[in-house]
Write a structure and sequence with these properties.
81 residues; mainly alpha; 4 helices; 84% helix; mitochondrion; transmembrane helix; transmembrane; HIG1 domain-containing protein
Length: 81
């Protein structure tokens, strides 16, 4: 009975690994690219370079869309197997 209580204390990552789910490394790259575009865009806005800021914010939206698509695709493919 004590072992059942220990299962509740598992970290979420351990639970996912235990169930055989794999993480998509491209999602991590998408998140890093999104954060990088956000930082560069905000710093360009702070300096006063509106053109670069606008370009980076548009890139950020594209990176976010690609990351969400990768997450949805990964979830779909994992559910299929």
């Amino acid at each position: 009975m004590a072992s059942r209580g220990l299962n509740k204390l598992e970290a979420a990552g351990d639970t996912f690994r235990r169930e055989g789910r794999r993480r998509n490394p491209l999602v991590l790259l998408g998140a890093i690219a999104t954060a990088g575009a956000l930082v560069v865009g905000l710093s360009a806005f702070h300096v006063g370079d509106c053109r670069l800021s606008q370009k980076m914010m548009r890139n950020r939206v594209g990176f976010q869309a690609a990351t969400v698509a990768l997450m949805a695709g990964s979830a779909y493919l994992q559910g299929k197997t």
